[in-house]
Amino acid sequence: MSNKYWGWGLEDDEFYLRLRDANLLQHLQRPDNLITGRGDTFLHIHDAKKRARDQVYTKLQKQMSHRRDRTSGLFSVNYKIADRQLLKIDGITASVINIELICDKTWTPYCTLT
User: Fold this and answer.
1) Domain with 21 in it
2) What is the pTM of this model?
3) DSSP 103
4) What is the separation of C-alpha 68 from the centre of its chain, rounded to a whole number of angstroms?
5) What pLDDT is attached to residue 7?
């Protein structure tokens, strides 16, 4: 997945395109009882007052979304582990890892508000 999406979105679209390009879409499985579709599965809230950061570089990110990022991804993401916890759900242990993404302002100048 691209590292260019900060705060606004489109990362799921980029991820879908990467799956498609790698011929992995046939391996996707959706629950049988899922009653939502593409347009109503997630509520996207981009309120200009509540989510000011989402509005700051929206135009730049929309323009960027038309160009595929083929240079960044999991191998190049810069982060630090902030916290780790073990969680048990129905007898199965899961690791929850909280990470802090490190912003590279030369690569993504919109990753922090200035």
Assistant:
1) 11-101
2) 0.55
3) P
4) 15
5) 64
